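REVIEWER CHECKLIST
Item 1: Sequence provided? yes
Item 2: Single chain? yes
Item 3: Sequence as submitted:
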Amino acid sequence: MCDRKCAALPVQTYPSRPDEHNFQGFILIFPPHIRVHVSGENVAMEAVYTHGIWMAESLQERTRSQEKFWLVVTHIGDPKAAFLLVFPFTYFISKRAGVTVLWVAAVSEWLNLVFKWMLFGERPFWWIGESRLFVNKQPKVHQVSSTCETGPGSPSGHAMVSAAVWWVVVSSLGSFLYSRTHSVVLSAAPYLLYVVMLLAVGISRIFILAHFPHQVVAGSFTGLILGIVLSRRVPERRPLLFFFSLSVVLLLGALMLYAGLLQLGVDVTWSIALAKKWCSRAEWIRLETLPFSSLTRDCGALLGLGLAQYWKPGGWSLPWAPRALALAFSSMGLYHVNRLPLPVQPQGLFYGLFFVKFIMVPQIVMVLVPGLVHLVTHKKKKD
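Item 4: Structure as written out by the authors:
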């Protein structure tokens, strides 16, 4: 018997909306349980959400045998993968591309957090139960371990960060291929792969009930725009003070937005409560999916980038064989850093250590491992 709870969920009722009659004709930006709607807006969004649920049901029924594949794809599209996988891989091929990937990943994920706090998007896995629309016909869907993310759903962070980061990779690769071959067809191949990868990530997010289709589309287009814009403004060789100031500004900016929403009477943690309420298993709720985890990751990575460029301006120059060795050891180092268990209580300690963990990511990739490889290989050449 399947041990995952399917979508046959108990009916829940929304709290009353006392202000609904006093503000007819206006839309106030508040979470779903206190939002005020224009006539017809609620029905339109319900139709969009409902079609999204049936699409997820169809995907799960038709591609059930590919579930493991979709889980792998959704992990590849995780914003965390941009820091731990894409960044080291690109850095040891092209230092500038690697720095650009880290820069774009941090800023795009931070902006995604801001958008989510402002847009209050639903997620399919909790909307099925909260909507009260599926009493007579329950969709035949199930959750998986990656379903229960705790932030609001719009726009999709996986789609947005992947679109931004992978644009850096494919545009660099496309330019390189054209400079070597002068073939438009060959240089266009990375862009075709880019579209395929984004489609795969988007489908995987719909499959696991983490996002509705329109959230994936919004994230993809927003990420594409950010990738194009941010890749032209890479903070190379900036002083450490720039990165320290940027990290502080992003941290304080997010905290001020959070405090401002609280002052307006908005329960910013509304999505966390719904995720805990409707997730099939309590252990699938992870602290690293909370909005403040994304914030500390982004600020830590940017400060770490500044420190790495401060310790070793320009980075280490390595031939191709030592670069491959450095990539292998960097990947191993990041794997173990990522797996370091962090205390979940108090949460302030967790966020502080999470911040330090991502400060270490650029140090490992840009300074420590390549420096060690350079030392060993240079010594062998002398011998």
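Item 5: Key structural point noted by reviewer: Residues 32-382 form one domain.
Item 6: Recommendation: ____
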